[in-house]
Design brief:
It is a single chain. With 518 residues, the protein is α/β, with parallel strands linked by helices. It folds into 4 domains: 169 residues, P-loop containing nucleotide triphosphate hydrolases (Rossmann fold), CATH 3.40.50; 61 residues, Helicase, Ruva Protein, domain 3 (Orthogonal Bundle); 117 residues, Up-down Bundle (Zinc Finger, Delta Prime, domain 3), CATH 1.20.272.10; 107 residues, GMP Synthetase, Chain A, domain 3 (2-Layer Sandwich), CATH 3.30.300.180. The protein has 25 helices and 10 strands. Helix 12 crosses helix 14. It is elongated, with a radius of gyration of 31 Å. The protein starts with 5 loop residues before the first helix and ends in a 12-residue tail after the last helix.
Length: 518
């Protein structure tokens, strides 16, 4: 007997076999049990999540000869015929190759005849969005007034392409991507039954690469079984070209720290190894998205399918980067992913993109510099230099412990509004008076400053509670007028340098900001 691939061998035979689609299975079961069967169903969702399999299961349940309740028996003549694709009452039609109006007209001629053996004549049209406009119009009349013995089940990955006139006449069921945990558990069950030797790490890699598709996961597992009898992470790495977790982590650390030499060395190593750099870039985009999620949410475990240890590792990486920096890096990575995907030479494109990203790392906010200098206890001369860049403080009695109040404010906000606390961390405390706490934002952070101003009703009560007096937040812009003039002069000098002009030409860049090292 010829070999049956795992995706076909382990195709769901009943509602209990559907993985990750419990709500759909429950609704269909209830409809069958109460005999509230619709004349047309639309199953939509990503590829490989069980749409066509569910259509077959529903067809079995409708025509099962020995059904006990809402589940098909799977053993009667009708169930076996549908499983084998030999039922005379169940028609599976490929919408991509039968999309003409003539094909639909032929279908309309056959629906009028009663089923040969079962209770219903069932038409399963896969990829129904591929039908032409004329074909949809021809099908519309049948859906409006269907014979009582006919049930249509449409399956599609793109429901938005289906005319609203068709959608309104169907019961719509949305199938979701299957979580990695569910895919991993199903793969464990299958590998145990098939006696396949595979490590836990390899199962995790396949679950991740499947991207929510059980069919893709089984296809990858089949491919791995053909390659080796003992499937490990190393074997999968060579077979599928998936970047190792350690490499992605190391590369991300290098990007966040601006370590270009080590980054280029890693790219060379991966190129020599024959790794897929397009896949690597996609992995980097996902990894930095996960870092950003950890940075801005209080409970990232609810959004990320990771273990506690993995979330902690992401949290450590996120602690060294600000929200604005992560946003810029992720935006650049998304742009880079598109460039690498279509590049003639992916390596050079990737290296150039990562080099551009190193410039983002060098953009340190003035507020952060001021805060570091203010907390360092540096000699009086440096402190005087910092004060010269600050706006002229109001002539009011000073309260000395502004750092303590600022620290307490950030800690309190972090427990109540983590995102607000993160944005507020980009500012530096400048002056604390009897009635105001003045903070400074970099002049380019006006959007951030406006956001903080809008949260005054949240911040001011906390300030009053912490300080024990009527205190409100005052937001100032840095640097001052003098620094702006000096900066403009320095920018002109830098732009006149031939080396800078050549770099801007090579990278198609522009001079945005120049800061004096002094």
């Amino acid at each position: 007997m010829s070999y049956i691939v795992l995706a076909r061998k382990w195709r769901p035979r009943g509602f209990d076999d559907l993985v990750g689609q419990e709500s759909v299975a429950r609704t269909l079961r209830n409809a069958l049990a109460s005999e509230k069967v619709a004349h047309a169903y639309l199953f939509s969702g990503p590829r490989g999540v069980g749409k066509t399999s569910s259509a077959r299961i529903l067809a079995k349940a409708l025509n099962c000869e020995q059904a006990a309740g809402s589940d098909p028996c799977g053993e009667c003549t009708s169930c076996r015929a549908i499983t084998d694709g030999a039922s005379v009452d169940v028609f599976e039609i490929d919408g991509a190759s039968n999309n003409s109006v003539e094909a639909v007209r032929e279908l309309r001629e056959t629906v009028k005849y009663a089923p040969s053996g079962g209770r219903y004549k069932i038409y399963i049209i896969d990829e129904v969005h591929m039908l032409s406009t004329s074909a949809f119009n021809a099908l519309l009349k049948t859906l409006e007034e269907p014979p009582p013995h006919v049930v249509f089940i449409f399956a599609t990955t793109e429901p938005k392409k289906i005319p609203s006139t068709i959608l309104s006449r169907c019961q719509h069921y949305s199938f979701r991507r299957i979580t990695r945990a569910m895919i991993r558990e199903q793969l464990k069950k299958i590998t145990a039954a098939e006696k396949i030797n595979i490590t836990e790490g390899a199962l995790q890699m396949i679950s991740k690469a499947a991207d929510g598709s059980m069919r893709d996961a089984l296809t990858l597992l089949d491919q791995a079984c053909s390659f080796t009898d003992d499937i490990t992470e190393k074997e999968l790495q060579g077979l599928l070209g998936l970047p190792e977790t350690e490499i992605i982590t190391s590369l991300s650390k290098n990007i966040l720290t601006g370590n270009i030499p080590d980054t280029l060395s890693l790219i060379k190593e991966l190129t020599d190894r024959g790794s897929d750099l397009r896949q690597l870039t996609r992995e980097l985009v996902e990894y930095f998205r996960n870092i950003a999620v950890v940075k801005v949410t209080r409970n990232p475990e609810e959004l990320l399918e990771f273990s506690t240890e993995e979330v902690q590792g992401l949290r450590e990486l996120a602690s060294d980067a600000g929200i604005e920096e992560l946003t810029l890096l992720l935006s650049e990575l998304l742009r880079l992913e598109g460039e690498v995907r279509s590049a003639v030479n992916p390596r050079y494109t990737l290296e150039l993109g990562l080099l551009r990203m190193s410039f983002v790392k060098g953009m340190t906010s003035i507020g952060s510099i001021l805060q570091m200098l203010g907390d360092s206890g540096a000699p009086g001369e440096k402190k005087t230099e910092v004060r010269e860049q600050q706006p002229e403080p109001p002539a009011r009695p000073h309260i000395r412990d502004k750092e303590g109040i600022w620290k307490q404010l950030l800690e309190r906000l972090d427990t109540e509004d983590h995102l607000l606390a993160c944005k507020l961390m980009e500012a530096a405390p400048l002056e604390l008076t009897a009635s105001e706490l003045a903070i400074g934002f970099n002049g380019g952070m006006t959007v951030l400053a406006d956001f903080i101003k809008g949260k005054a009703s949240v911040i001011n009560p906390l300030l009053q509670e912490i300080s024990g007096r009527s205190l409100r937040l005052k937001i100032l812009s840095l640097p001052g007028e003098k620094a702006e003039k000096d900066n403009k002069k320095i920018k002109e000098e830098v732009f006149s340098e031939p080396l800078v002009r050549e770099a801007l030409k090579i990278f198609s860049g522009s001079l945005i900001k120049v800061k004096s090292l002094e």
